[in-house]
């Protein structure tokens, strides 16, 4: 049986392994040793793991700044995909955001990641006519 719960420090190694499998070409600022401590500093209650017999098999980060919610870093181990776990993680994060008063959730998907875009489309997300822009601060 899979359980979704808030991330705790003892989940670090499991999340690091999961992200290494799910995001093998990740940017340095998204690596677990950078991203997880930052998330634990800000809205740690919006970082969730899926556990199967105490092993991390999935994760999702969410955020809310009072106007829009965000979903990021959703991942499921390859051996556990196709069981609805990604959808359960997404539903869990959305429910927590809604409980905070969030009425709209945004997310970003690499244009080359058609499978992930399709997953979100099946979950009710739609492409909006927007340009995604970013700026790295502080040399990270």
Structure description:
- By secondary structure, the chain is α+β, with helices and mostly antiparallel strands.
- The protein has one domain: 3-Layer(aba) Sandwich (Aminopeptidase).
- It is built from four helices and five strands, in the order βααβββαβα.
- It has a five-stranded mixed sheet.
- The longest helix is centred in the middle third of the chain and has 15 residues, at about 85-100.
- The protein is globular, with a radius of gyration of 15 Å.
- It holds the Pfam family Acetyltransf_1.
- InterPro entries: Acyl_CoA_acyltransferase (IPR016181), Bact_Acetyltransf (IPR050832), GNAT_dom (IPR000182).
Keywords:
single chain; 140 residues; alpha+beta; Aminopeptidase; five-stranded mixed β-sheet; 4 helices; 32% helix; globular
Detail the topology: elements first, then pairings:
Elements: E1 2-6, H1 12-22, H2 32-41, E2 47-52, E3 55-64, E4 69-76, H3 85-99, E5 105-106, H4 114-122
Parallel strand pairs: 4-5
Antiparallel strand pairs: 1-2, 2-3, 3-4
């Amino acid at each position: 049986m899979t359980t979704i719960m808030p991330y705790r420090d003892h989940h670090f190694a499991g999340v690091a392994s999961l992200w290494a499998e799910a995001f093998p070409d990740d940017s340095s600022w998204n690596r677990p040793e950078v991203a997880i401590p930052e998330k634990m500093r800000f809205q740690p209650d919006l970082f969730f793991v899926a556990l199967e017999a105490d092993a991390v098999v999935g994760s999702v980060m969410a955020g809310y700044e009072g106007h829009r919610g965000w979903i990021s870093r959703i991942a499921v181990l390859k051996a556990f995909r196709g069981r609805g776990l990604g959808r359960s993680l997404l539903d869990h994060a959305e429910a927590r955001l809604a409980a905070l008063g969030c009425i709209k959730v945004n997310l970003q998907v690499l244009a080359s990641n058609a499978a992930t875009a399709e997953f979100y489309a099946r979950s009710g997300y739609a492409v909006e006519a927007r340009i995604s822009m970013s700026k790295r601060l502080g040399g990270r």
